[in-house]
Design brief:
alpha/beta, Nucleotidyltransferase, domain 5, 2 domains, 11 helices
Length: 340
Protein backbone atom coordinates (compact mmCIF):
# COMPACT_ATOMS: atom_id res chain seq x y z
CA UNK A 1 0.00 0.00 0.00
CA UNK A 2 1.71 3.21 -1.11
CA UNK A 3 1.46 6.16 1.22
CA UNK A 4 -0.28 9.31 -0.07
CA UNK A 5 2.02 12.34 -0.09
CA UNK A 6 -0.36 15.20 -0.90
CA UNK A 7 -3.13 15.23 1.69
CA UNK A 8 -6.17 17.53 1.69
CA UNK A 9 -7.31 18.17 5.27
CA UNK A 10 -10.74 19.43 6.29
CA UNK A 11 -11.71 20.91 9.67
CA UNK A 12 -15.19 22.03 10.76
CA UNK A 13 -15.53 20.99 14.41
CA UNK A 14 -16.55 24.36 15.84
CA UNK A 15 -16.76 27.81 14.26
CA UNK A 16 -13.98 27.70 11.67
CA UNK A 17 -14.39 26.18 8.22
CA UNK A 18 -10.91 25.18 7.12
CA UNK A 19 -9.15 23.24 4.37
CA UNK A 20 -5.44 22.78 3.72
CA UNK A 21 -3.04 20.87 1.52
CA UNK A 22 0.08 19.47 3.19
CA UNK A 23 2.89 17.53 1.52
CA UNK A 24 4.56 14.68 3.42
CA UNK A 25 2.90 15.68 6.68
CA UNK A 26 4.96 18.83 7.17
CA UNK A 27 5.11 21.13 4.16
CA UNK A 28 2.01 23.34 4.20
CA UNK A 29 1.13 24.22 0.59
CA UNK A 30 -2.06 26.06 1.58
CA UNK A 31 -4.12 26.65 4.70
CA UNK A 32 -7.46 28.41 4.38
CA UNK A 33 -9.49 29.27 7.48
CA UNK A 34 -12.83 31.04 7.29
CA UNK A 35 -13.92 32.15 10.74
CA UNK A 36 -17.53 32.59 11.80
CA UNK A 37 -16.55 35.00 14.59
CA UNK A 38 -18.51 37.90 13.08
CA UNK A 39 -21.64 35.71 12.82
CA UNK A 40 -21.50 34.51 16.45
CA UNK A 41 -20.20 37.74 18.03
CA UNK A 42 -23.67 39.15 18.66
CA UNK A 43 -24.59 36.07 20.71
CA UNK A 44 -21.32 36.21 22.74
CA UNK A 45 -20.54 32.58 21.87
CA UNK A 46 -20.92 29.88 19.23
CA UNK A 47 -24.54 28.94 18.40
CA UNK A 48 -24.43 25.30 17.14
CA UNK A 49 -27.31 25.52 14.62
CA UNK A 50 -25.95 28.74 13.15
CA UNK A 51 -22.45 27.22 12.95
CA UNK A 52 -23.64 24.15 11.02
CA UNK A 53 -25.42 26.27 8.44
CA UNK A 54 -22.43 28.59 7.98
CA UNK A 55 -20.16 25.55 7.42
CA UNK A 56 -22.55 24.37 4.71
CA UNK A 57 -22.27 27.72 2.93
CA UNK A 58 -18.48 27.76 3.18
CA UNK A 59 -17.23 24.20 2.78
CA UNK A 60 -17.06 24.00 -1.03
CA UNK A 61 -15.52 27.47 -1.58
CA UNK A 62 -12.98 26.84 1.20
CA UNK A 63 -11.87 23.50 -0.31
CA UNK A 64 -11.65 25.13 -3.76
CA UNK A 65 -9.50 27.95 -2.35
CA UNK A 66 -7.17 25.54 -0.55
CA UNK A 67 -6.58 23.66 -3.83
CA UNK A 68 -6.15 26.87 -5.79
CA UNK A 69 -3.67 28.36 -3.31
CA UNK A 70 -1.69 25.10 -3.39
CA UNK A 71 -1.69 25.32 -7.20
CA UNK A 72 -3.28 21.90 -7.50
CA UNK A 73 -6.50 20.39 -8.74
CA UNK A 74 -8.40 17.64 -7.03
CA UNK A 75 -6.96 15.03 -9.41
CA UNK A 76 -3.49 15.65 -7.95
CA UNK A 77 -4.51 15.04 -4.32
CA UNK A 78 -3.75 11.51 -3.16
CA UNK A 79 -5.26 11.36 0.32
CA UNK A 80 -7.89 13.02 2.51
CA UNK A 81 -8.28 13.64 6.23
CA UNK A 82 -11.13 15.21 8.18
CA UNK A 83 -11.89 15.97 11.82
CA UNK A 84 -14.33 13.39 13.18
CA UNK A 85 -14.31 14.17 16.92
CA UNK A 86 -14.75 15.87 19.35
CA UNK A 87 -16.87 18.89 18.42
CA UNK A 88 -20.34 20.09 17.52
CA UNK A 89 -22.01 17.23 15.64
CA UNK A 90 -23.83 19.46 13.14
CA UNK A 91 -20.55 21.21 12.35
CA UNK A 92 -18.36 18.10 12.24
CA UNK A 93 -20.79 16.43 9.84
CA UNK A 94 -20.32 19.08 7.17
CA UNK A 95 -16.54 18.74 6.75
CA UNK A 96 -16.51 15.01 7.43
CA UNK A 97 -19.21 14.27 4.86
CA UNK A 98 -17.40 16.40 2.28
CA UNK A 99 -14.20 14.40 2.83
CA UNK A 100 -16.07 11.10 2.70
CA UNK A 101 -17.85 12.05 -0.54
CA UNK A 102 -14.61 13.18 -2.20
CA UNK A 103 -12.77 10.05 -1.06
CA UNK A 104 -15.38 7.72 -2.54
CA UNK A 105 -15.92 9.74 -5.69
CA UNK A 106 -12.16 9.78 -6.37
CA UNK A 107 -11.31 6.37 -4.85
CA UNK A 108 -8.80 8.04 -2.55
CA UNK A 109 -7.56 6.78 0.82
CA UNK A 110 -8.95 8.85 3.67
CA UNK A 111 -8.80 8.92 7.43
CA UNK A 112 -10.76 10.33 10.37
CA UNK A 113 -8.79 12.60 12.72
CA UNK A 114 -9.13 13.44 16.41
CA UNK A 115 -9.19 17.23 16.83
CA UNK A 116 -7.07 17.29 20.02
CA UNK A 117 -4.44 14.95 18.59
CA UNK A 118 -4.29 17.26 15.58
CA UNK A 119 -3.72 20.33 17.81
CA UNK A 120 -0.77 18.49 19.37
CA UNK A 121 0.48 17.49 15.92
CA UNK A 122 0.60 21.20 14.97
CA UNK A 123 3.62 21.58 17.29
CA UNK A 124 5.28 18.42 15.93
CA UNK A 125 4.61 19.49 12.32
CA UNK A 126 6.66 22.66 12.71
CA UNK A 127 9.44 21.46 15.01
CA UNK A 128 11.53 18.30 15.04
CA UNK A 129 10.53 17.07 18.51
CA UNK A 130 11.35 13.65 19.84
CA UNK A 131 8.50 11.82 21.59
CA UNK A 132 7.38 11.42 24.32
CA UNK A 133 6.35 14.98 25.11
CA UNK A 134 4.12 16.66 27.64
CA UNK A 135 1.37 18.51 25.72
CA UNK A 136 -0.70 21.33 27.18
CA UNK A 137 -3.88 21.67 25.11
CA UNK A 138 -5.40 25.00 25.97
CA UNK A 139 -8.33 26.44 24.05
CA UNK A 140 -11.89 27.70 24.42
CA UNK A 141 -13.23 24.22 25.09
CA UNK A 142 -10.24 22.36 26.53
CA UNK A 143 -7.57 22.75 29.16
CA UNK A 144 -5.77 19.46 29.57
CA UNK A 145 -2.34 17.93 29.79
CA UNK A 146 -1.29 14.76 27.97
CA UNK A 147 1.66 12.45 27.85
CA UNK A 148 2.13 11.95 24.10
CA UNK A 149 3.84 8.68 23.15
CA UNK A 150 2.89 8.64 19.46
CA UNK A 151 0.87 10.82 17.06
CA UNK A 152 -2.30 8.96 18.00
CA UNK A 153 -1.42 7.71 21.46
CA UNK A 154 -1.93 10.21 24.24
CA UNK A 155 -2.50 9.60 27.92
CA UNK A 156 -4.52 12.19 29.84
CA UNK A 157 -2.49 13.47 32.80
CA UNK A 158 -4.63 16.36 33.98
CA UNK A 159 -7.60 18.46 33.05
CA UNK A 160 -9.46 21.47 34.29
CA UNK A 161 -11.75 20.89 37.23
CA UNK A 162 -14.12 23.58 35.95
CA UNK A 163 -13.72 26.16 33.14
CA UNK A 164 -11.29 25.96 30.22
CA UNK A 165 -8.63 28.71 30.20
CA UNK A 166 -10.00 30.23 26.97
CA UNK A 167 -13.47 30.30 28.50
CA UNK A 168 -12.08 32.30 31.45
CA UNK A 169 -10.54 34.84 29.03
CA UNK A 170 -13.85 35.01 27.15
CA UNK A 171 -15.87 35.55 30.35
CA UNK A 172 -13.54 38.21 31.76
CA UNK A 173 -13.68 39.96 28.38
CA UNK A 174 -17.48 40.15 28.71
CA UNK A 175 -17.14 41.64 32.23
CA UNK A 176 -14.70 44.24 30.89
CA UNK A 177 -16.89 45.04 27.85
CA UNK A 178 -14.30 43.75 25.36
CA UNK A 179 -14.90 42.20 21.94
CA UNK A 180 -15.57 38.46 21.44
CA UNK A 181 -13.54 36.26 21.37
CA UNK A 182 -12.04 37.44 24.63
CA UNK A 183 -8.52 36.03 24.52
CA UNK A 184 -7.04 38.40 21.95
CA UNK A 185 -8.92 41.47 23.28
CA UNK A 186 -7.98 40.85 26.94
CA UNK A 187 -4.31 40.36 25.96
CA UNK A 188 -4.33 43.51 23.87
CA UNK A 189 -5.71 45.64 26.72
CA UNK A 190 -3.36 43.87 29.18
CA UNK A 191 -0.39 45.32 27.29
CA UNK A 192 -1.37 48.76 28.64
CA UNK A 193 -1.86 47.56 32.23
CA UNK A 194 0.13 46.57 35.30
CA UNK A 195 0.09 42.76 35.80
CA UNK A 196 1.02 43.15 39.47
CA UNK A 197 -1.58 45.75 40.37
CA UNK A 198 -4.16 43.25 41.66
CA UNK A 199 -3.24 39.93 43.32
CA UNK A 200 -5.72 37.55 41.71
CA UNK A 201 -5.38 33.89 42.83
CA UNK A 202 -3.03 31.53 41.00
CA UNK A 203 -4.16 27.92 40.95
CA UNK A 204 -1.74 25.36 42.33
CA UNK A 205 -2.49 21.66 42.00
CA UNK A 206 -1.74 19.28 44.86
CA UNK A 207 1.59 17.45 44.41
CA UNK A 208 1.13 14.21 42.47
CA UNK A 209 -2.43 15.17 41.48
CA UNK A 210 -2.08 17.45 38.45
CA UNK A 211 -5.09 19.56 37.50
CA UNK A 212 -6.11 23.05 36.41
CA UNK A 213 -8.85 25.40 37.61
CA UNK A 214 -10.08 28.79 36.45
CA UNK A 215 -13.43 29.33 38.17
CA UNK A 216 -11.83 30.75 41.36
CA UNK A 217 -9.89 33.27 39.30
CA UNK A 218 -12.96 34.27 37.29
CA UNK A 219 -14.97 34.75 40.50
CA UNK A 220 -12.12 36.77 42.07
CA UNK A 221 -12.21 39.16 39.09
CA UNK A 222 -16.00 39.45 39.37
CA UNK A 223 -15.87 40.23 43.13
CA UNK A 224 -13.07 42.70 42.57
CA UNK A 225 -15.26 44.55 40.04
CA UNK A 226 -18.06 44.59 42.62
CA UNK A 227 -15.74 46.35 45.04
CA UNK A 228 -15.17 43.22 47.11
CA UNK A 229 -18.86 42.93 47.99
CA UNK A 230 -20.46 39.95 46.22
CA UNK A 231 -23.97 41.27 46.92
CA UNK A 232 -23.36 44.38 44.80
CA UNK A 233 -24.31 44.42 41.10
CA UNK A 234 -21.53 44.13 38.53
CA UNK A 235 -20.74 47.64 37.25
CA UNK A 236 -21.15 48.35 33.53
CA UNK A 237 -17.81 48.14 31.68
CA UNK A 238 -17.58 51.91 31.16
CA UNK A 239 -17.73 52.44 34.94
CA UNK A 240 -14.79 50.11 35.64
CA UNK A 241 -11.66 51.93 36.74
CA UNK A 242 -8.24 50.66 35.70
CA UNK A 243 -9.64 48.17 33.19
CA UNK A 244 -6.19 47.62 31.69
CA UNK A 245 -4.75 46.76 35.13
CA UNK A 246 -7.59 44.28 35.72
CA UNK A 247 -6.94 42.69 32.29
CA UNK A 248 -3.18 42.49 32.90
CA UNK A 249 -3.52 41.15 36.45
CA UNK A 250 -6.07 38.55 35.30
CA UNK A 251 -3.86 37.48 32.40
CA UNK A 252 -0.84 37.13 34.70
CA UNK A 253 -2.82 34.94 37.13
CA UNK A 254 -4.33 32.84 34.30
CA UNK A 255 -0.90 32.23 32.76
CA UNK A 256 0.64 31.35 36.14
CA UNK A 257 -2.26 28.91 36.69
CA UNK A 258 -1.21 27.13 33.48
CA UNK A 259 2.59 27.32 33.74
CA UNK A 260 3.23 25.84 37.16
CA UNK A 261 0.85 22.84 37.02
CA UNK A 262 2.17 22.02 33.52
CA UNK A 263 5.84 22.09 34.47
CA UNK A 264 5.26 20.25 37.76
CA UNK A 265 3.42 17.46 35.91
CA UNK A 266 6.08 17.26 33.17
CA UNK A 267 8.77 16.85 35.83
CA UNK A 268 6.75 14.29 37.78
CA UNK A 269 6.37 12.32 34.54
CA UNK A 270 10.08 12.58 33.75
CA UNK A 271 9.26 14.33 30.45
CA UNK A 272 11.92 16.68 29.11
CA UNK A 273 9.94 18.33 26.33
CA UNK A 274 6.77 20.39 26.60
CA UNK A 275 4.51 21.70 23.83
CA UNK A 276 1.59 24.09 24.28
CA UNK A 277 -1.12 24.14 21.60
CA UNK A 278 -4.68 25.43 21.00
CA UNK A 279 -6.02 28.99 20.75
CA UNK A 280 -4.75 30.19 24.15
CA UNK A 281 -1.23 29.13 23.12
CA UNK A 282 -1.30 32.30 20.93
CA UNK A 283 -1.04 34.27 24.17
CA UNK A 284 2.28 36.09 24.27
CA UNK A 285 2.59 36.09 28.05
CA UNK A 286 2.03 32.31 28.12
CA UNK A 287 4.63 31.83 25.37
CA UNK A 288 7.21 33.93 27.22
CA UNK A 289 6.58 32.62 30.74
CA UNK A 290 6.22 28.92 29.92
CA UNK A 291 9.43 29.08 27.88
CA UNK A 292 11.36 30.96 30.60
CA UNK A 293 10.14 28.85 33.51
CA UNK A 294 10.54 25.61 31.52
CA UNK A 295 14.07 26.49 30.44
CA UNK A 296 14.96 27.36 34.05
CA UNK A 297 13.92 23.81 35.00
CA UNK A 298 15.94 22.28 32.16
CA UNK A 299 12.90 21.54 29.95
CA UNK A 300 12.54 22.30 26.23
CA UNK A 301 9.34 24.20 25.39
CA UNK A 302 7.82 24.58 21.90
CA UNK A 303 4.73 26.31 20.52
CA UNK A 304 3.23 26.14 17.01
CA UNK A 305 3.11 29.43 15.09
CA UNK A 306 -0.03 31.35 16.13
CA UNK A 307 -1.80 30.46 12.83
CA UNK A 308 -1.49 26.76 13.74
CA UNK A 309 -2.48 27.24 17.41
CA UNK A 310 -6.07 28.18 16.60
CA UNK A 311 -8.30 25.81 14.62
CA UNK A 312 -6.92 25.10 11.16
CA UNK A 313 -6.85 22.26 8.64
CA UNK A 314 -3.07 22.06 8.13
CA UNK A 315 -2.84 20.19 11.44
CA UNK A 316 -5.59 17.82 10.21
CA UNK A 317 -3.87 17.16 6.88
CA UNK A 318 -0.50 16.74 8.62
CA UNK A 319 -1.73 14.24 11.18
CA UNK A 320 -3.84 12.58 8.45
CA UNK A 321 -0.66 12.00 6.45
CA UNK A 322 1.02 10.28 9.42
CA UNK A 323 -2.03 8.07 10.08
CA UNK A 324 -2.36 7.11 6.41
CA UNK A 325 1.36 6.37 6.33
CA UNK A 326 0.83 4.07 9.32
CA UNK A 327 -1.83 2.19 7.33
CA UNK A 328 -4.96 3.64 8.95
CA UNK A 329 -7.99 3.99 6.63
CA UNK A 330 -11.55 5.16 7.31
CA UNK A 331 -14.42 3.13 5.85
CA UNK A 332 -17.76 4.16 4.39
CA UNK A 333 -19.52 3.73 7.75
CA UNK A 334 -17.10 6.04 9.61
CA UNK A 335 -18.98 8.69 11.58
CA UNK A 336 -18.50 11.81 13.68
CA UNK A 337 -18.82 12.01 17.47
CA UNK A 338 -19.25 14.92 19.90
CA UNK A 339 -16.88 13.24 22.38
CA UNK A 340 -13.20 12.46 22.16
O1 LIG B 1 -8.34 26.45 19.62
P1 LIG B 1 -9.37 27.53 19.42
O2 LIG B 1 -9.25 28.36 18.18
O3 LIG B 1 -10.81 26.94 19.41
C1 LIG B 1 -11.26 25.99 20.31
O4 LIG B 1 -11.72 26.41 21.41
O5 LIG B 1 -11.13 24.77 19.97
O6 LIG B 1 -9.31 28.45 20.73
C2 LIG B 1 -10.15 29.57 20.92
C3 LIG B 1 -9.89 30.14 22.30
C4 LIG B 1 -10.85 31.26 22.67
O7 LIG B 1 -11.34 31.04 23.99
C5 LIG B 1 -9.97 32.50 22.62
O8 LIG B 1 -10.40 33.52 23.49
C6 LIG B 1 -8.62 31.94 23.02
O9 LIG B 1 -8.56 30.68 22.37
N1 LIG B 1 -7.50 32.78 22.57
C7 LIG B 1 -6.66 33.41 23.42
C8 LIG B 1 -5.77 34.18 22.62
N2 LIG B 1 -6.10 33.98 21.31
C9 LIG B 1 -7.16 33.12 21.30
N3 LIG B 1 -6.60 33.40 24.76
C10 LIG B 1 -5.64 34.15 25.34
N4 LIG B 1 -4.77 34.93 24.65
C11 LIG B 1 -4.80 34.97 23.30
N5 LIG B 1 -3.94 35.73 22.63
ZN1 LIG C 1 -9.49 23.47 18.54
Amino acid sequence: MSSPRLVLGIESSCDETAAAVVRDGREVLSSVVVSQIAIHAKYGGVVPEVAGRAHLDQIVPVIDRALEEAGLDLGQIDGLAATARPGLVGSLLVGFSAAKALAFQRSLPWVDVHHIEAHVYAALMEHEIELPVCALVVSGGHTALYRVEAFDRMQLLAKTLDDAAGEAFDKVAVLLGLAYPGGPSVSKLALEGDPERFAFPRYRAKPGRPSFSFSGLKTAVLYHLRGGDATQPTPPPEAIEDRADVAASFEAAAVASLVRPTLDAAEEQGLERVVAVGGVACNQRLRTELTAAGTARGLKVHFPSPAYCTDNAAMIAGLGYQLLKGGKRAQLDADVSPRG
